[in-house]
Amino acid sequence: QDSFGIEEALKQLGIQEVNEGTSTGNNWFSNGDIIESYSPATGKLIAKVKSSTKEDYEAVVSKATEAFKTWRMVPAPKRGEIVRQIGDALREKKDALGKLVSYEMGKSLQEGLGEVQEMIDICDFAVGLSRQLYGYTMHSERPQHRMYEQYHPLGVVGIISAFNFPVAVWSWNSMLAWVCGDVAVWKPSSKTPICAVACQNIINEVFKKNDIPEGVSCIVTGNASGDLINNDKRMPLVSFTGSTRIGRHVSKTVAERFGNTILELGGNNAIIVSEHADLSMVLVGAVFGAVGTAGQRCTSTRRLIVHESVYDKTIATLKSAYAQLKIGNPLDANNHVGPLIDTKAVQDYLNAIEKAKKEGGNIIVEGGVLEGEGYESGCYVKPCIIEAKNEFEIVQEETFAPILYVLKYSTIEEAIEIQNGVPQGLSSSIFTNNVREMELFLSQAGSDCGIANVNIGTSGAEIGGAFGGEKETGGGRESGSDAWRAYMRRQTNTINYGTELPLAQGIKFDF
Ligand code: NAD
Predict the structure, then answer these.
(1) Which residue, by CA, sits nearest to atom 21 of ligand 1?
(2) ipTM computed for the complex
(3) Which residues line ligand 1 (CB under 6 A)?
């Protein structure tokens, strides 16, 4: 592992053998069980983190609640200035943090660095936003009255994140929350806790330099903290990224106490390959979409819906591309595909292939688990392609692994129906040079997803556009556009600068 400079990266990020997993800022403490984090790349122990007890959690939320009173009074552009400094600190640590993301999560180093770049990009976005938290003004029907709306900070925001984007998703939430005047309590995935400790170490230095009180950026670890957040009335907003199964539970629990949620849940994303597609472009989009991050992106391409006239050709091209894929240590730039997160994910992958076969699926590129030198972690699998039908139970589910289902269609209307015919609604795409097809796909009769692309794949997103999906993907939007509104409360204000008190709708109330 040293040959890839991991030890040095851990040192730069302030990671120790055993780390406290609860933090209110500079103050680290933890009294809970130990979480051991193993690299899926090598199977080796990276470091340990102590999880938060109920008492630790209490200490964090009290501190955060207290800090909110100060932080909300810091002018938004000044909060933006601190986020600007965080962006700079991330630029300095980009190599080390990108490496850790790759080592702890298993995505390729390029993707690990890309994830940190996304953090930097959201910082830049948030800095600009800190001067643009606009509300409307309205014309009052009453004379000498002024009416407008303004946005105020919400309070303590709970952020619960998934393992597959161990740092970026938190930053999408926290950078916006901070410029909006909220304070953040982050519960990272227990599969990638070291990345979270590293982020908090970076943030702490910036907050400390600016004399910001403890509690603006907090961490709690361990699964029990998730339910404490769901039930915590002091948290008006919970931003949850993860599976639809757990998201459903979070959604119900938070709604029960009238809290708000931002839900970023599972996807079942498809690319439509039209007879008018440029097939050389399809290849990059589909293969990266299906095997990038070993199929563990919420936007990974899971279904390829191919026109019958280009079906055989597309399959042949895919087969030859898959034959050239190099699978191995994600820190080695020669490899295209890294490991799955753990051996449970490997089992889910194997089960899905079995189920697809039982339902009548036809294997086009064989899957399987890799063994031997370099594959000691037991988490490396072969990306596989299965000819299937959209109505197969397994095709309707999200399996977080590099399995691509190929489906055939005859008309564009049928392709759109197949694309929409799943419970999830995150990302979708069409490859076509036909303007009618393209516009139909983007129209209200087209894709029902939160993301609909033309001539690029389903996978990946850019800061700037609101990110999220419909149906069982949860309906949340994060990161770009006006997603910031979810982190603030709206207030409508009417001011009377006259000497009379006319009532609205002309109501008379004389006495
Ligand atoms: P997961 O649902 O298993 O875990 C997500 C988080 O929830 C983790 O931090 C986990 O510890 C926590 N958690 C567990 N039980 C909880 C509870 N009772 N209350 C509150 N939190 C609890 O998901 P995962 O395996 O880490 O991530 C993969 C899933 O995330 C996939 O379904 C993927 O599509 C989805 N995802 C979606 C997006 C998106 O933006 N739509 C982005 C990334 C990942």
Answers:
(1) 226
(2) 0.98
(3) 160-165, 169, 187, 189-190, 223, 226-227, 230, 241-243, 246, 249-250, 264-267, 298, 398, 400, 426, 473
